[in-house]
């Protein structure tokens, strides 16, 4: 429940008895009641994770919703000019973040590589077979590629991680036009024996 300057934090443990299900809930305090909200239960065979960065332009994210992700992660740089909204020196201001969440409710209700959002472009670089990804929802900026770059594009992008039972992980750099720009499959690392 969100009310300016009057907030109640609720914490409840919910046992999840079903996989591949959508759970509905609402919160009530006294006479106040939140709207219906949802979260997804654990998946049975495939886990999809989207990683995004640079939300400032508030792009159309319907393709991410279509990917039906289980977990949404951010690589950062999501709020433009935070001090204009909160005031200079205001360290505990959450208004811009609350506005970001409110702008994309369909994404925030859901419940072996490095992913960042430092540049305004899409990139995959590899050093010693370890992949480093960059993603940006505002992918039209100047490109300053890593010397080990294997893929580079000036596209509005996000990263979709798909993990299958048995350990295979697919990493896709996808455009907001639903085009796969780059795709890599990663086998599970071999477990080391401990004595």
Tell me about the largest β-sheet. Answer: 5 strands, mixed
Counted beta strands: 13
Summarize model confidence as the mean pLDDT: 77
Question: What general form does the structure show?
Answer: globular
Order of helices and strands: EEEEEHEHHHEEEEEEE
Continuous helix count: 4
Low-confidence stretches: 191-195
Output the strand order for the largest sheet: 6-5-11-12-13
> Helical proportion?
10-25%
How much of the sequence lies in strands comes to 25-35%
Q: Strand pairing plus helix content: what structural class? A: mainly beta
- Amino-to-carboxy terminus distance: 50 Å
Radius of gyration from the CA trace? 19 Å
Description:
It is built from four helices and 13 strands. The N and C termini lie far apart (50 Å). It has 195 residues and is mainly beta. Helix content is 12%, strand content 33%. A five-stranded mixed beta sheet has the order 6-5-11-12-13, with no helix packed on it. Strands 7-9-8-10 form a four-stranded mixed beta sheet, with no helix packed on it. Strands 1-4 form a two-stranded antiparallel ribbon.
Layout of helices and strands:
Elements lengths: L21 E4 L2 E2 L2 E2 L3 E4 L5 E7 L9 H5 L4 E4 L7 H5 L8 H9 L1 H4 L5 E3 L5 E6 L2 E5 L14 E5 L3 E8 L4 E7 L4 E7 L9
Parallel strand pairs: 5-6, 7-9
Antiparallel strand pairs: 1-4, 2-3, 5-11, 8-9, 8-10, 11-12, 12-13
